[in-house]
Specification:
By secondary structure, the protein is an alpha/beta fold. The chain folds into two domains: 211 residues, Metal-dependent hydrolases (TIM Barrel, Alpha-Beta Barrel); 46 residues, no CATH class. It contains twelve helices and ten strands. A hairpin with a 2-residue loop joins strand 9 and strand 10. The longest helix is centred in the first third of the chain and has 13 residues. It starts with a helix and ends in an 11-residue tail after the last strand.
């Protein structure tokens, strides 16, 4: 916090739109945006008023009571951000049309703005995402694994390919990345979910036409994640000139039985030429200098 206080408002506006501020372990950049929505408990003005009355409210991510704004104010904020080169990220696809409106005022197609928590998307939505140059951050733990069967029932046979349509996004040329939302923590769950697309409760395969291949899922978890953070020239693939940090995995992602993908763990991790984690080493035996 002391470090942040040394920066002026002009400095803050500058680094919000670029690679961010920080180092290789922790970097902050961009602007999270959220519009109020009466139907969503996380964005309802009434719910936010309750949270405000309970201050100090710990919250997390975008769920603090003052994170959302009325839609007209969000539109003004987005236009100002776009005009100043500030990258914006929205947590839900319902912000997509507002991004389209902003793009008509100030082009954003080269800014890598982000749409997250992909639940359902139509072909028209995917085309808009592609044309705006957005990066998609998925939430397969929820929209495939935990609620996939419920969403499939609601969408019906004609709408199944709108549910977390990862394959359609990739075919359209949209960079797809993964996130866990800490439920569970391991990134190998989203990798597995994108490949198997199984519902947690029923075991039903949700929209099999949207399955990713193992190679596509690996790219989403590596080079596409690096692209999301403007680090594709430093990490995400094994190439000359990039960081040579790596992990040794408990199984081969490309050949292990499909349902065992989610259980893959790191046996050891090498960072900067040093082993900084070893699953068999005693706790505290390995430290980062």
């Amino acid at each position: 916090m002391d470090a942040l206080c040394r920066y002026s408002s002009g400095d803050v506006a500058a680094w919000l739109g670029q690679h961010g501020i920080g180092d290789d372990f922790l970097r902050v950049g961009g602007l999270y945006v959220c519009a109020e929505d009466e139907s969503d408990p996380n964005r309802s003005p009434i719910e936010n008023a309750v949270r405000a009355s309970a201050t100090p409210y710990t919250s997390w991510a975008g769920f603090h009571y003052d994170a959302s704004l009325p839609r007209d104010k969000v539109k003004k904020l987005l236009v100002t951000a776009a005009a100043n080169g500030i990258r914006c990220a929205a947590m839900t696809p319902d912000m997509l049309d507002m991004f389209v409106e902003v793009n008509r005022v100030v082009p954003i197609s080269d800014r890598r703005w982000v749409i997250g928590h992909i639940s359902t998307l139509s072909d028209d939505d995917i085309a808009k995402i592609r044309d705006l140059g957005l990066v998609v951050s998925t939430h397969t733990n929820r929209y495939i694994w935990r609620t996939g069967a419920k969403m499939l029932k609601e969408a019906g046979p004609d709408g199944e390919n709108t549910i977390s349509p990862l394959a359609s996004l990739i075919r359209a040329g949209v960079p797809v990345t993964f996130g866990t939302d800490n439920v569970p923590v391991s990134l190998f769950y989203p990798i597995w979910q994108s490949i198997a697309r199984k519902d947690l409760t029923t075991g039903e395969v949700v929209a099999p036409g949207q399955k990713l291949s193992r190679e596509q899922a690996l790219r989403a978890a590596t080079i596409n994640g690096a692209y999301l953070t403007f680090e594709e020239n430093q990490k995400g693939s094994i190439e000359p000139g990039k960081l040579a940090d790596f992990v040794c995995l408990s199984d081969d992602l490309m050949t292990v039985e499909e349902d065992r993908i989610k259980d893959i763990v790191a046996e050891f991790t090498v960072l900067g030429g040093r082993t900084v984690f070893n699953r068999e080493a005693p706790v505290g035996a390995i430290t980062v200098s």
